[in-house]
Amino acid sequence: MAEMGQPKPLHQHHHLVLLATVLAIMACTAAGEEGNGKPLVTAITKDGSTRLYSFPVIKNGSPLVLDLSGPIIWSTCPDSSAHDTIDCNSPACMRAHRYHPPNCPHTGYGQPDAPRNPYRCKCTAHPHNPLGSNSGGSTPQSGQDLTRVALSANATDGNNPLSPPVAFTAVASCAPESLLEGLPEGSVGVAGLGRSALSLPAQVGKAQGVCNKFALCLPSGSASGNLGVAIFGGGPLSLLPMVGTDLTASLAGETPLVKYKECPGYYVKATAGIAVNQAQVVLPLDDGKDGCGPLVVGFSTTAPYTELRSDVYRAFIKAFDAATSGIPRLPSPTSGPKFELCYESAKLGSTRLGYAVPQVDVMLDGGKNWTVFGGNSMAQVDDRTACLAFVEMAEGKATYGGGGEAAAPAVVIGGFQMENNLVVFDEEEQRLGFSGLLWGRRTTCSNFNFTMAAV
Ligand SMILES: *[C@@H]1O[C@H](CO)[C@@H](O)[C@H](O)[C@H]1NC(C)=O
Ligand SMILES: *[C@@H]1O[C@H](CO)[C@@H](O)[C@H](O)[C@H]1NC(C)=O
Ligand SMILES: *[C@@H]1O[C@H](CO)[C@@H](O)[C@H](O)[C@H]1NC(C)=O
Question: Where does the Xylanase inhibitor N-terminal domain lie (predicted)?
């Protein structure tokens, strides 16, 4: 009986797989309300003084700062009656309140829409400066109108931008000018890229009928013309000189994304820990500090350098110090980021992947290593000095949902360590894919061909 019955469940199983596949494809390509189903591309610039990354997605070309951990888009709005407001009982308002910034009082969903219509409740949101109040940014704002902003970007075939540009509206929070404190000059707000319904990739996905995922390739310098690239919809993406080679195709995304507390950011686990020069660093793992046992690793475009929680930082520095004991040292810079290990750069050999220093492997669940070679580990701080560009995380760093008290993840991979590394954040599949340092493939993140494709 059982034997005879076998083919049927198998058959049904195939149908289920097919159905699931069709649904997954539909979720990415048919959900668009008005979009043309093509991914959107935008150039990314790095600001030399703040070390933050921006892209010009506001329709008038004004830039927004990228925030991988941000749940919403916010920008300065035209005054009072010049911008739209949104009903308190709309789904957009619920979504805007899904994640609550640290150190911010709860003040309800909205307030009377006076003087327009005092009987209507207009939705207000809590835009948050990702630098936080202790890094120059101001405290989160409550009671800012939720509104709609006009955005624009070019569609792409993966090789070039396509004309004409695509314009669409997105739900965003207004913010006062004061919330721009500490952000690059000229930027008008922040684009939250997090795992929320109102993040930029989620809203592009809906508007454009593409997957809720994006490919991020951060540029390494702030010289003009040094443009990185982001593709909403996740790909394809080619970089010169490999015209027509989709680099995202090989990023199967073997690393599962995990949730970390109530944070809207991207996190993965590194159960196997960290290795320096192929030797595992002995870490104080089960200290219960992040309540999850294995190391939790986050990603941040607003942390210029990778931050390690104090306990992890000490063990890591000790291991790197020992592994580089033969290399002449120089004093740490007296200003700027607090780098502890600095070397005479002329005495560091160089390779295709940067200075010949011990490689750092963050051994991620799923079997892939986030490997940091010299090109992503050593920052040239002056003509003679290169320093290990990892810093100790500030104690009690506030995170979303943590009320400011939450224990931070063990590792937050910062901008410098993501530069020239193509990373695909795939909320649809809840996976992360990454290329590793692109110098190994003889290209960089600044090699997207931004010339409009000939029509
Ligand atoms: C579209 O691409 C062209 C060529 O790179 C660029 O000049 C233009 O600013 C882009 N448009 C938008 C909306 O990003
Ligand atoms: C990851 O790094 C460790 C330590 O360097 C190494 O032993 C292991 O082979 C690496 N795994 C992969 C898949 O490269
Ligand atoms: C960039 O794209 C344009 C338009 O397709 C093309 O004419 C040009 O040759 C490309 N540049 C390079 C260096 O391949």
Answer: 63-234
